[in-house]
User: Fold this.
Amino acid sequence: MRLLFQRRPGTTTLWLDERPRAMGLPQAGLLAVHLPAAAPSSTLILGTMRVVAPPAGWVLLGAAEAGATLRAEGVPLRLSGGRGEGPLLPACRIWEAEDVLIPEAHWRAARILGEGAVVALAGGPARPLIRLQAGGVAQVTLPPWPLPGPADPVLAVLRGGAPLAEFDGTTLTLRAAVACEVVWEGLQLRPKSRANSA
Assistant:
């Protein structure tokens, strides 16, 4: 995942309500905004994508065009203003829209049906590690998250052969022909979806 643009959060904040606010994005990509505090009674809306009760810190919204606008439903919420730019433009990050960036809190909240755990290997980020016996089946479910399009799981095989993997939007299902141990590292947009989100 390549960071294309960053407007760092400053000390100012701006209020976001139901009125669309221009983000002032220099280019399209996967957009995240920064909240100085959690907004448990609000919903962030970018196009058709909705994030209910966004937490404090960086919040990924999904694929955005350069002219994208952002609005909120429920209680108005605060966004961090960009450093050096006052409250006129919100702090934001834009990533290349090739891989799907899932929040770390979602990975840590993964539910595993089968043998496995969410672990951090070699000091890296926490990811689901799953062990399957020959002929075994396991499922890993993440909390709901707005995806910019159909995506395929990215797996790292630590032992054995690669299992058959299917992802339905929230749940990864693994079926193993031989005993194996894999780490679910992330999601990658399918080529057609990648082109549509560029």
